[in-house]
Amino acid sequence: MPSWWAALFFLAAADMAPIPAGEYLRGRNFPWSDYDVAWYPNPAKDDTPARRLKMAAFSLDVAEVTNARYQAFVKATARPAPYHWKQAQPAAEKLNHPVYNVSYDDAVAFCAWDGGKRLPTEAEWERAARGPLEGKIYPWGDRAIAPTDAVYEGKDGPAPVCSKTKNGFGLCDMTGNLWEWCADWYDRKYYETAPAENPTGPAAGQYRVLRGGSWFDVPPLFLSLPYRSWARPPERSPTIGFRCAK
Length: 246
Prior knowledge:
Elements: H1 3-12, E1 16-19, E2 22-26, E3 51-55, E4 58-61, H2 67-77, H3 104-113, H4 122-130, E5 179-185, H5 190-193, E6 208-211, E7 228-231, E8 240-241
Parallel strand pairs: 5-8
Antiparallel strand pairs: 1-4, 2-3, 5-6, 6-7
């Protein structure tokens, strides 16, 4: 298959899933034994209190943005390619792998270019990741994670998108493969004061929210649905990617 044909194929496969309006319980409503240890880092206790949120309908990319999609963006806009690409080209055998080494601003620019999309808010991301289930550790429930569920605890980087089971809303890789940029600034105590309807995060901050865990991370904590992480907007990492909302 010629590389240009493969790129067109993967671009055409970039579908969006409708996420219906409704309410859901955002945050952690179950205990982690580590959190009871007095010296455990306070930032890791940022996923409470669990509160019900009312959310408007939106759409979310079924898959993390792939190298093929991002390559088309780079060619159309002359934006710098991820620094690990050789001669500004992704490896031909990895066109359907998720793109990484992209900053927050890179992700925002891609989403705007890709049909006027945007990054999801943190509340939208968790709503979509949970699917129709509520109060669970993972998108599939509370049972232990299995290799058929997600890409995790690896050594060789992310896997092709949608290589694991989809969640209840038909989304791929909401757990594992790559952390995903969200639109929100990060605040450890934001859940205490967030609006109960369509929260969009703090007005300012130093870090942007990351959600979902990556191919490198170890379960259960880092891959659990409520777990929050963060990074400075300019950061580019082999564990961070994104998907777009609308």
